């Protein structure tokens, strides 16, 4: 049999009929004409089905010759028409018994013909399906030849060898009938190149030129001068409206938030950033609870229940287009005894401000009112307070309603990501999402933490896209913003709203710092492009009146603070003017922590190497080699601050130094986080690491974390990262003692009490050097600081006067000490990791 080759796409065919049909797909030739309506077709079988539509009788009869089939112009053989008409009206005729039998016979005959045709398969099963679909009626315009060529090339991807064709015949193609394939492979009508394509030729009025596109009112104009064309005044509005229907318009976004955020929040007519404007005032007399400090009353409780206590129904009410500007006060409340009463909400809010808010103080208390606060933020604050309350009813309520709250905040974040929210609404959504992520860390449920990972990513990513972490790339914040406000009361409120946003940004920075560490992921904020405006003095932010605020501002407490850039090799740690608050130092330390975490996940994550001290790897990287010197700058410039301020700052610094000298992922695996096989390999790595100076410095920092957490006061609020750092310190010191060779400690070393004060300025970068291996080299001059001698040469460690030798029993005692302290570390869920330390104190017996 002679193979025929297509001159356009080089495909080959055995049958002349297939070759001509394929050739007509390129040439768009339509040789078959209907004698009734003179419509032309490229295939005879399509014409046959079309002719049935003309000859369909009004009665039940379906038999009769087709008289409108002409002879093909090119001599191609004529195909028998199908029994069932495929007309455009979808009419199904009624058949009697004789016709039914005829229909069954004809259907089986057609099916046999399709199966017999399958015996002559082309070289691909996909080619067969494409060929089969080509026999079905099509209603779209002709396809461009270029597209046809691309389709022909694409269909060759699934060529099947000749030896495998029988397998496809028997297992794939035989059970499939033409009607099923027609259902799935029938192209969509009125489409040219894809779904939703626009056929501009089909609308005579579409376009900016041409006689058919001019309306009757425009036809009286004899000509269009150049001025009219340039101005666009002669273009009818209908043309723009048609373009708008087919072309998705951008959302009504507010642009990049940082470009005008200070002006937007300062000159808003609301007293607080987190307040909403009530369209309809509250009805009825005020029902404030006696003794309520923050304005919680029954109406406030009903508002929260209406939105969050009714599940999806309440959420849909608030998010419907008709209610976008309607106050939640206008929604009809429904009482529910399962929702906390107003008294419980008031107690929860009071606990929130007493135990949680001092850690991240960004809400301006003098202008805060629960009645006017946006519902999502207020509800998240109450949930945090309820988990801190710790009763059976409040804890169960939080656990049951956490998922719905997370869903609500996630939907609000989605609106912020596309820019459909205003500046104040976007900032409030950031604050609510921040609260929910902290709530997940308080509940301690693994399911909640897993669900929150995407919310965390979206929150920090959207905030970074709005430029919140690039202060120098947005609107400049200066005194002119406040000096133009003559009224002192309005100026105070404007300043408080600006300060609220600054503090929220630092809160997001802290969130990315500790959340990425806890999740063992790289931080989302880009360190190299981070700039931060430092917060003002805490006393200014807590001033209860405008007069007190003005008095403090005139007494050497500036209303504006400098902008700092991410510390690096060329940018040193900033000098901070006294007095410095805890929250200010948290922001600076968080910036360095982000750079350290980014370097670790970029260089060492899942690829630890000897000597298993990250500082050794960082010394060879241009962006990370500054990290040891940054820690030295922090200890030199902030030495007094780290001793005077909250223990959270000191723990944060010690943890960064420990992360420089110990690869924490090895310790996680050694504890059993990844199972038994990686644990044994990790213990061998720790045994090699334990003989390096970096390991001995890591032990000193781990012990100082324990000392700092033990000496904290009852009024000191513990941050999440402090509790998590305590757990990491337990792994580092405990596994070091367990794996270190005993001979290393006894060979001419220096004895040191782990809980004594250490002069870190004298220690300097000892242990941070790039040569981590223990090696006999030129001896260094002795140092007066015992810690330096211990890092260099090793020695015996003492804990409360008791010597610590290597082995199981000392390691077990250390793990139990840390576990007891971790268990009482506060409300954060990380305290549950004390169970891991208790388990390890027993499991180590089997490992030894």
Q: Any overview of this molecule?
A:
The chain is an all-alpha fold. It has 3 domains: 4-86 and 118-185, no CATH class; 257-566, no CATH class; 596-847, no CATH class. The chain is 52% helix and 3% strand. The chain is built from 36 helices and 9 strands. The strands form 4 sheets. The protein has a 3-stranded mixed sheet. It has a two-stranded antiparallel sheet with strand order 1-2. A hairpin with a 6-residue loop joins β3 and β4 (40-41). The longest helix has 32 residues, at 488-519. The radius of gyration is 38 Å and the shape is globular. It starts with a strand and ends with a helix. The model is unreliable at 58-98, 100-124, 137-143, 150-158, 191-224, 278-286 and 312-334 (pLDDT under 50). One of its GO terms (biological process) is DNA-templated transcription. The chain crosses the membrane at residues 376-399, 719-739. Keywords: Membrane, Metal-binding, Nucleus, Repeat, Transcription, Transcription regulation, Transmembrane, Transmembrane helix, Zinc, Zinc-finger. InterPro entries: VerF-like (IPR051059), XnlR_reg_dom (IPR007219), Znf_C2H2_sf (IPR036236), Znf_C2H2_type (IPR013087). One of its GO terms (molecular function) is zinc ion binding.
